[in-house]
Amino acid sequence: MIKKITFLFLMSFFFVSCEVINDSNSQQVSTQDYKRAVSFLYENYNNKTAFNLNSKINWFKDDTGIWFIEYTKKKKTYKLVDFKDFQVVDLFNHKKVANKLSKFSKKLINQNQLSLFNIQKIGKDNLEFRFEDKLYVLNLNSYQLKLQEENIKEEKNLFESKSPDGKWIAYAKDYNLFIRSIESNKEFQLSTEGKKGYEYASSYDWYDKMEGENGERPIRFFVNWSEDSNWIVTNIIDTRNAEKMYMLDHSIDTLYKSKLLSYYRGSPGDTTMVMLKRVFYNIENKKEFKTSLPIATHINSVSIEWMNKSGEILANYLERGYKTNVLKHINLNNGEEQILIKETSKTNIDNFWFSQLKEKLKVLFLSERNGWRQLYMIDLKSNKTSPITNGNYYINSVEYIDEDKEEIYFMASGLEPNNNPYHQKLYKVTYKGKVTLLTPGNTHHSVNFSKNGKYFADNYSTINIPTRTVLRSSINGNILTELTRADVTDAQSKGWQFPEIFQLIAKDNKTTIYGALWKPTNFDSTKYYPIIDATYTGPHTQVFPKSFDRCFSNQSLAELGFIVMNVDGLGSAGRSKEFHNHSYKNMGNNLEDHVLAIKYLGQKYSWINTDKVGVFGHSAGGYDTGRAMLAFPDVYKVGVASSGDHDFRMEKAWWPEMYQGWPVDETYEEVSNITNAKNLKGKLLLVHGGIDDNVNPSATFKLAHALVNADKEFDLLIFPSQRHGYVGKARNYFIKKRWNYFVEHLLNAKPIWDFKL
Fold this sequence. Notes:
With 757 residues, the chain is an alpha+beta fold. The chain contains 13 helices and 45 strands.
């Protein structure tokens, strides 16, 4: 009997041992791990353990100086730079101000944690600011503090518009446009054909909600006066054939029946969309002026800008399909129309921008016509177009135009050799094309110009070079004074390290792509870590962390025992037209380079376990997550897809038609997560807000339905009261849920729920 018991004990031990051995990849996650993860949420590190990551500079209206806040571990200090001497000094005596505010508020105010807003100079010696929703004026000599009695401003009527010369009031009545003389009070009806569903002087808002089965669209009013008050332009909003999208709001505690919500939103290929027509009226003769401008859908409406000459406009529009862009000059006085630009593309046009140089009768625009986003200029007198810049680099934005000096300041990336192609710098170019670099060095720059253009503030950094914020001269880019420096010594003392940048060759076997990865602060190179892809393939944006304020963006999740990765593959934004074109009619395959990156990192580092790969993303990143799990099921094992647009045929029309093409064809079905639901192998959590009016929750519901029909196990979380972004308790709940989903299914560890965010 004793022998038998011994045998059973030994067998039991054997099985237990085998179970431990078979689960050797599992890891333990402690409360301390969760505490570290929480400490790296934005609200817990920004200017609390990591300081001055990206300083905001505020310009005084009189262009005499700036103010900003410098943060340290012990205090925040309001600082001043006067343009007379460019010295950084305290804006005021913090102790005196705190004492004064304590008396007014009848509570103790900490001098090191003042929260003042809308600070402005009033004359030479006074500061005006808001504190706790009250307006104060401080005399900097006497430190007398006065509570300002604010004049109750006459509430602006959102349904009428006064002409610039103050002689006319425009308004809508019975779905038509009217004007009234302020002097005589006489009313004139400009339009006569308006009716419900065909409404003059209205506008369309993507988020206009209608409640109930026969709900009314919110009343909208829109007109745009010419500067000389002689002309007015408005819209006809035609909803007669427009179809709706629906939602049910289950979140109202006092209602025991769900509320039906609807809104007008066209899907790809729809002809049943909201239509918009621009109409023009001459104020003198009270008549409509006809143009050849198209009646457009709500996804490609016509933009209008008035010119200096009375009755002349610039009109810009993209034809449906986004392959043709037109810029017109129209003279409403005589009916002449002139096409200034007509660009076509075999793929799409989504990076066009223009601005008038009114005094010079020129138009500046950004175009990818030569394969890179460059600056061009049209001379309206000769109708000639000339390139201002020319090169294999990408102009991100125009920051300032000095018409007197004929200089344009722009941000561009990829111009300097041996620099990261995503790191942007500030340049100055003359109208004749002479380019000058104003922010040298291999860093990424973010600038903010003074109103007069003499100075600009510059936050410059990389993901692993801490931010310096400086004030520069726009003449030559010289640094006039240093304002702040980022300080992460507190985080470093606890083991935090800079994210690591990596690069590899993309799927085309020639193009270098870039990424970054985060490791836990208790990283141990002898361990074997799962890797998680934090994804958003765009294609209208990119995720490579260019600047230092992104250095903690994925650190919280890494703290739970993961390596977290960002990478931009072919098809994302910010580089050449050819690079971007990889995503056209191909959005479902933007993750191929992510798979290459994961394999590359697994080969490079012994501590990355490419058998345990996770993925998460929101919105378009939610689609990416679903696509990763269904198109690459042998690579991605665990995914959390939040607010995902899982089938582009169900999305708002502009996004898919721009990047997946128009008309709708078989490629839409090929890249649909819904039609590919049968491919799921791993663990997938679907999350959506119940009243999401950006990405309708029906996308997630339909994917869930398809997964059920395919007999695939998955998890579903719906936040009934949430829209596209999750806020409040729902946001915290989602963070915990996402963290624990990876802890349980990638680490094979027991999650902890009872911890505070």
